[in-house]
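RETRY 2/3 - previous attempt timed out on the joint model. Re-submitting the same 664-residue input unchanged.
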Amino acid sequence: MNRETEQDLIKGCIENDAKAQRELYHKFCGAMMGICVRYAPTVHEAEDLLQDGFIKVFQKIHTFQGKGYLAGWIKRIMVNTCLTYYRDNKNLRMYAELDEDVLKEEASFDVLAQLSADELVQKIQRLPDGFRVVFNMYAIEGFSHQEIADELGISIGTSKSQLSRARAYLKKIIKEEEAKEVNGTAV
Amino acid sequence: MGQQSKNKSALGEKFNGFEFTPSNNLFDGIQDELAKDAEKGVLADKFSNFEQPVSGSLWPKIEKELHPEKKKRAIIWWGVAASLIILFSISSVDLFRGDLGQLDSVAENTQFEQNSSTEFSDKPLVKGNSSTNLPNRNGNKASGVFFEESAEVFGHKIQNKFKQPFSYEKNENYSVIGIAQKRLVINTANSEFLVKDSLFDIAAELFEGLEDKQDKKPNRKNNIAPYSGSLFSNGSNNGQLTGNQTALMDEEAAPEIDYSDWTVSEGGVFIVDGIEGSGPDAVVVPLSDLAGVYALVDEEIVLLDDYENEVGSDYKDYKPALSVGLLYERVLGKQLSIAAGVSYTVLNFNYDKGIWQDYKREGSEAYLGIPLNITYDLIKNSKFNLFPLIGGQVDFGIAHKETINNKELPGDVLLNSNSLGNHFSLLAGCGIGYDLNDHLSVFGQSIYQTNLKSTGDGFFKKTPSNMSFQAGLKVSF
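RETRY 2/3 succeeded.
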């Protein structure tokens, strides 16, 4: 989308024009859903996050000052929506028990890099909520542990430990799936 | 050079070439940190262009929040998240046959002694008292039933004897009469029927005491019942089957009798032929009570049609039903929906057994249906949804057409055949849908339908269970 078209679209959305809003939604919903599925354990919850995120986008579109790309601005709102949901939802599963042996083995960079985005998302969705949020923030969004700690209201040490546990859990998931494949082939 | 500089130089020289070995795992730690940073970047790149599909139903929810004024309009139109469904259906037929199977079982399970010589009856088998009110005789009663060895009818002296033993057995909902190789299954235990030794006796029974008011002749009109089986004969005829006739007497036996004014009445008799040479044996049963006539052919019980031809399972051969429907669907929850509407079903059929092999008899039945379905989205993603469904349907028979050799049968004949009626069915099935965009989706579903109650004899009663495949278009608004 060129800047001129984007400007027209933003203007239409500021004027609460339904057609402009729908066009903007359809333009970015796929990419934003790609963010939400990383934070949510199911597609259904991801769509809930997406819905909340886009409501905020349209409610705040008048604050977009045109510095940077609209896509990046929308993405930030979407990520913040996801983080707000998990920060404020006290019933989420933030921890998971892991054996000491499992904790020693973290999923290596090489192994994760070999997975496709879809495969990675499927495994990330299986992480406990706390592990999943920290892993997304650090390994994909690029937050530092300090920023994660500030955002989620936890300590840096907790952030580091959650990341380490997330990688160990991913390793466990990968091993389980490999074992299933082997057993399936053997049968 | 000052003292400080001199000292620095001396100390500096002391540490020239000085080395200190760090701990073994220090570099591993440095590598880990570098690796994590590298990993962070690559995973970010992996997701930089990552997109996922979104279900078509999400935007309407967002729009509803952004534009609440439209919500009120939706309420007037009975809710948001509703759809119109255009449905097309094709059904198979003859999955299970209901009534026929039951009659087959009754006929088969009723055992008779076929050559018994001791069970002659000298009295007709009559239900109720001796003064029998035969149906459709305009309220006239027979003066009485009788059984004589000789009788005079229309000036002819006839001598006949009841030669064939007959048997009678009552089952739960049926009375079954067996004469020789035939079994008559009569619908209710309380039906009126007579057994006579000859057709002459039948005629006497029917005509006695009846007079035309004008010319004092016996009032034959409205008292001659249509019958299947043999012609009325003088006893020498061995009773060959000649098809459906309204004449009670053939010309050889009584040529002077003018039976041209005899008409078919609404009631009926069924005449069962006896063994060759012994004269016909007769059972009078109102046709409305007659559930079926069976014969023993090659040790197998087979059903006979009105012309005493064996009926095959495809007596009335229905083609797959075609339906089209329009339904209104309302979303009740995240996964539950209910839909109701109207449907129109057409069934074509033909007859290709027995005598109809030489004729082209075909027709169609039309039904107006009111379906009600409840679906549950078992699996749903952005494009597809998989759902089971249950429901019910009421079908009203609205049109019936039949032709023989392309000549249309008159409407009053079709009305009397009682072939349509109204029917109530339950249905269950499963289907799959695919979202084309926010407002349009297509779906296919496989339905099993079972008829629970019928007021007529049409398609739904003859084939109470059916499978159908339905496809449709859903428009969401």
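The CA atoms of residues 151 and 158 of chain B lie 5 Å apart. Closing ticket.
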